[in-house]
Specification:
single chain, 470 residues, alpha/beta, two-stranded antiparallel sheet, 12 helices
């Protein structure tokens, strides 16, 4: 798989260099602050008699969603308060969400949102989300605790940098208006300039574009780790559904070297049928019936590899925020490869499909990534696992529970012993009654006379005719 990505990366970088020399690799949307964009804006302002505010992002703003008071299955499985936050909460890490925008009206997320950029409208906002994909991804990562719901982000102290590059989600190849990969490249470049340490690219390009490859390489060189979905375009009809996804549907940037490609799985650990199959799948994450924050507040249910990528991005965020991790290089492609290897070597096998292309290394497990001493495939963390320190009240509760378990166990064995004695007594009583209350005794042994010893009888006597009667 790594060799596959290296070939792709080398080809893309060579093509990007040639295109840059020839002057044809200009992104469709220039990053803010670019001299070309400034000149274009100046010319546009001169040609227009009056300036106006940017058009609203959404023709049909999303309606309000209900709050889900329960603990979603994803939060219950990862149990962040007990298994993750004692080691890392994502503090100090900025996560760029390159997708459909991030809505500031999501109350669980608002405190963590930074000022982003909207490449669809070319405005320094990036804080609108018409369909909810970007907002959902951001909440899985950094939603704050609330007494109204059991939903919470896995890395709540991380900051979210919204980068809006699309008006709708794109995770399949055959769309009416495919997203220009140069737009995604512009979003990655801008996020890198803002110092994002984790970049989630939730939109999928099915074209190996030189500008996109160059942006990915530049981000990795700057020390950013990129996480991307592998796409939802796996064939549904047999026998194609049993084979790797066709090559023309190769997802980018997930297929580039060092990019963590994420597939989608169900709550039972089965690959979602639409989740693509290929060497670009590094790990799986929840991608069906996932509860996450809605753009207008409340919660909605999401599915697909895009929402799955948010769980892997949260795991990367926790790792980069964890102190004492000498196994993480300071920057460059080596850093991305080390983090990818860490996630792969600590992933949990799912449903017996550990080695299949559609399952990668297994299900991403942030707790194991933070605490496990890994095998020779990845360097071990300098900080071995230590259970979290408990307060005096928690220790007293734990001792009370242990004493209660001991008492319950003793009572159980006592009850079983008493029951066995009762059963044995009833059995003996039935036998006595069956014998009319007589004491059972062994009959006396009667000595019998031994048989006489055999005597020899001659043959003529034995076969002689009987004597005549007198």
């Amino acid at each position: 798989m790594i060799e596959f990505r290296r070939r792709r990366a080398r080809t893309a970088l060579i093509a990007g260099a040639l295109a840059a020399v020839l002057g044809v690799a200009t992104p469709a949307y220039a990053a803010p602050g670019d001299s070309e964009q400034s000149e274009a804006s100046s010319q546009s302002s001169q040609s227009e008699s009056t300036s106006s505010a940017p058009e609203p992002a959404c023709d049909n703003p999303p309606s309000a969603a209900q709050i889900n008071p329960k603990v979603p299955w994803t939060v219950a499985n990862y149990d962040p308060a007990q298994r993750l936050w004692p080691y890392s909460t994502g503090s100090g890490v900025t996560v760029a969400v390159v997708s459909t925008g991030v809505a500031p009206t999501q109350s669980q997320l608002a405190p963590q949102i930074l000022t982003g950029y909207d490449f669809v409208r070319n405005t320094s906002e990036g804080m609108d989300d018409c369909i909810g994909q970007g907002t959902a991804i951001a909440t899985v990562i950094a939603a704050q605790e609330s007494d109204q719901t059991g939903f919470v982000g896995l890395a709540p102290d991380a900051k979210i940098l919204p980068v809006r590059v699309a008006e709708k989600e794109q995770v399949v190849a055959n769309t009416d208006e495919p997203l220009d990969p140069a737009t995604i490249a512009s979003g990655i470049e801008w996020a890198t300039e803002q110092g994002a340490r984790v970049i989630v690219v939730a939109e999928v390009s099915f074209v190996d574009d030189p500008a996109l490859a160059s942006a990915v390489h530049a981000a990795q060189s700057a020390g950013a780790v990129i996480v991307a979905p592998v796409g939802d375009d796996h064939p549904k009809d047999e026998p194609a559904s049993l084979q790797p996804t066709p090559a023309e549907r190769t997802p980018y940037p997930a297929a580039y070297e060092g990019v963590i490609g994420v597939g989608a799985m169900t709550s039972s650990g089965i690959r979602v049928p639409a989740s693509q199959v290929g060497p670009y799948v590094d790990v799986l994450a929840p991608g069906e019936d996932v509860t996450a924050g809605a753009p207008s507040g409340g919660h909605q249910v999401y599915s697909g590899t895009a929402i799955a990528s948010s769980f892997a991005a949260a795991a990367v965020t926790l790792l980069l925020a964890q102190p004492d991790t000498p196994w993480v290089p300071s920057g460059g492609l080596e850093k991305s490869l080390a983090v990818e290897l860490r996630l792969r070597s600590t992933a949990s096998p799912v449903s017996g499909h550990f080695a299949e292309l559609g399952y990668g290394a297994g299900a991403v497990d942030p707790a194991r990534a933070l605490t496990d001493l890994t095998n020779s495939e990845a360097a071990a963390s300098a900080t071995p696992y230590e259970p979290p320190v408990l307060s005096e009240q928690e220790l007293a509760q734990q001792k009370f529970a242990e004493d209660g378990e001991s008492r319950a166990l003793a009572l159980t064995w006592g009850a079983l012993g008493g029951l066995a004695a009762v059963v044995l007594g009833l059995s003996l009583l039935r036998r006595v009654r069956a014998n009319k209350a007589r004491v059972l005794s062994t009959p006396e042994r009667v000595e019998t006379e031994r048989d006489q010893e055999l005597q020899y009888v001659p043959g003529e006597q034995l076969f002689a005719p009987p004597a005549k009667p007198e």
